[in-house]
Design goal:
6-stranded mixed sheet, 19 helices, binds pyridoxal-5'-phosphate, 44% helix, globular, 468 residues
Length: 468
């Protein structure tokens, strides 16, 4: 499989280079040259298979030609072996035609483990085959950092440095990062805000000699391989609930648009999908866009669902690329305009075409809490604030008669105990394997919010190692 940049001027890459490069050199995101198809017969043949078996069948065409093609099945098996539910992504029924797909059975209790547990292994094996190593550097306000650390721990070809704002992430989130004591994992607590952390990471990537010397790389959701691994659970849900005979509506609590884009990709491959519901919190740029046709940036505000506190949804560019009939130059132009003016429209016909499939729905903090409580009272399921937004959005957006609603449960309630407790009076317990999280020793280095300090720290830790 070959991959193209959404901005049209970066070279076309194979899977391995797409995996390792993340963002394209022209600033675009990589997408597959064409969508592999799952016919009705293919979908039927997936019935009764396990999650890893379906994963291999769905992803095989995307990795065709990779150096790790031979070991892919084993890597997929390993990636999901440590999950704490036999089904990997179990489905729970909420109402006759309404289901939850639980995506929090991985090591850090949020859906990001589903792609990252595989992507960490893919990075490590491709790098080993090439005799290279990389240094992953990233900033986190919570969920992403712990999932990336768990994905990269103990990997010979990877060092990982994750910056978090000192004293400004929740105790559970911090401990999920700082209690990983593998020698290739480095937690940096920056004396500043999340924005300071992100600015430092950007500055490090902009320092080309530093970047090349240590082989800096990222595993954020712009990486195609993450999207690829997320397509799997949409197909899994569809097959489990009657595809190809039945049709589906997915409701997805959305931040960077990566997860819901994976549902769109599954539809392009042949899963019968009627509608995709984009749930937002008060940071509702996408909902405002689907309602009114203009994409306009606003200030980010803090909410009970912090993993969706985002204004620019990077993966939306992948949808735009198709909406602009894969004209990369046109996408580059419109994205440039968005950056400059902080708002942009794509024309009425394109907006309407997107609205045929996508619909946004905004849920504020109070409604989120009420939904957590209502769902607990009606179904006995305790859900986290992100999932609650998805469930409420799903209930409120109309869908075609007979379309089965599946809401993606993106985090375990114990990851956001305060909101859950405020809503229901119940304290959600951590699953047994994390029950001793608060007793484990922590390790982090506190540094000032200065690029130079972080650069010097990274060089010191990596003394003697360099990218081959
Ligand atoms: C990352 C995250 C989201 C947002 O997903 P995107 O792919 O960025 O849209 C939603 N919920 C939780 C719990 C997350 O960790």
């Amino acid at each position: 499989m070959k991959y193209l940049s959404t901005r049209g001027s970066a070279p076309t890459l194979n899977f391995d280079d797409t995996l390792l490069s993340g963002l394209a050199r022209d600033g675009g995101l990589y997408v597959p040259e064409s969508w592999p198809k799952l016919t009705r017969e293919d979908l039927k043949s997936l019935r009764g298979l396990s999650y890893p078996e379906i994963a291999v069948r769905v992803m095989a065409p995307f990795i065709a030609g990779s150096l790790i093609e031979d070991e892919f099945e084993k890597l997929v098996g390993d990636a999901y072996a440590g999950f704490d539910h036999e089904a990997i992504a179990p489905l729970k029924q909420l109402a006759p035609d309404s289901w939850l797909c639980e995506l929090f059975h991985g090591p850090t209790l949020a859906f990001k483990d589903y792609p990252l547990q595989l992507v960490g292994r893919l990075f490590d094996r491709v790098l080993a085959k090439r005799g290279q190593r990389v240094t992953i550097v990233g900033a986190t306000s919570g969920d992403t950092g712990s999932a990336a650390i768990e994905a990269c721990r103990d990997k010979d070809s990877i060092d990982i440095f994750i910056l978090h704002p000192h004293g400004r992430v929740s105790d559970v989130q911090r401990r999920q990062m700082t209690t990983v004591t593998s020698s290739n994992v480095h937690n940096i607590a920056v004396e500043g805000t999340f924005d300071d952390c992100q600015d430092i990471v950007k500055a490090l990537f902009a320092d080309l000699s530093f970047r090349d010397q240590y082989g800096l790389s990222a595993v954020n959701s712009i990486n195609w391989a993450r999207i690829m691994a997320q397509i799997v659970y949409y197909v899994w849900c569809g097959v489990a609930l009657g595809a190809p005979e039945r049709r589906f509506t997915f409701s997805v609590p959305t931040g960077n648009f990566g997860n819901v884009y994976a549902a769109y990709a599954a539809r392009n491959m042949g899963l019968p999908v009627d509608k995709l519901i984009v749930g937002s919190n008060a940071n509702d740029i996408l909902t405002r866009f689907f309602e009114g046709g203009e994409m306009a940036m606003a200030e980010v505000v803090g909410t009970l669902s912090p993993s969706m506190d985002i204004q620019i949804s990077s993966n939306f560019e992948r949808l735009l690329f198709d909406t602009y009939k894969r004209d990369g130059a046109a996408v580059a132009k419109v994205m440039e305009k968005f950056r400059k003016d902080r708002k942009v429209s794509f024309g009425k016909a394109r907006w309407q075409a997107m609205r045929k499939l996508f619909e946004g729905y905004r849920v504020g903090d109070n409604a989120t809490k009420t939904a957590i409580n209502d769902i607990y009272e009606n179904t006995g399921e305790l859900i986290d604030p992100h999932t609650a937004i998805g469930v409420l959005a799903g209930e409120n957006v109309a869908r075609p008669e007979g379309s089965v609603l599946v809401t993606m449960a993106t985090a375990h309630p114990a990851k956001f105990p305060r909101a859950v407790e405020e809503a229901t009076g119940l304290h959600p317990d951590l699953p047994p394997r994390l029950a001793d999280l608060f007793e484990r020793p922590e390790r982090a280095d506190v540094l000032p919010a200065q690029t130079n300090a972080v650069r010097a720290f990274i060089s010191e830790q990596l003394a003697g190692k360099s990218a081959a």
